[in-house]
Amino acid sequence: VQLVQSGGCLVQPGGSLRLSCAASGFTFISYTMSWYRQAPGKEREFVARINNGGVITNYADSVRGRFTISRDNAKNTVQLQMISLNPEDPAVYYCNVPTRGYWGQGTQVTVSS
Asked: Would you place residue 5 in the very low, low, confident or very high pLDDT band (cuts 50, 70, 90)?
């Protein structure tokens, strides 16, 4: 099983960023996928979730309206589009298969002017 993430980098406040997670080694279309994040000194927290069909999404209050989770079941990928990034968003972001405990390697997102 692999969850390989890409897309993290440094952005200015108010900027946008798109994270991607490529899955392999399991039946991707069968599973809900999630994104979590962990800031320095804080516990890992839920960010967003999308069901296996890509129809039902859930978001943390802190990101709702700014982040969008999506998936491409043909390509076994899940994305997190982030806009209006603010100083509370910097963290290492992880994709996750919540019912199997699979985690990506983490992607650093930094927001700084």
From this structure: very high
Location of structure tokens 């100083």: 87
Q: What is the pLDDT of residues 34-79, one digit of tens each?
A: 999 999 999 999 999 999 999 999 999 999 999 999 999 999 999 9
Distance from C-alpha of 54 to C-alpha of 41, rounded to nearest angstrom: 32
Per-residue burial over 35-70, b if 16 or more Cβ lie within 10 Å, else e, is bbbeeeeeeeebbbbbeeeeeeeebeeebeeebbbe
d(CA 31, CA 76): 11
Q: What contacts 2, CB < 8 A, 6 or more positions away? A: 22, 23, 24, 25
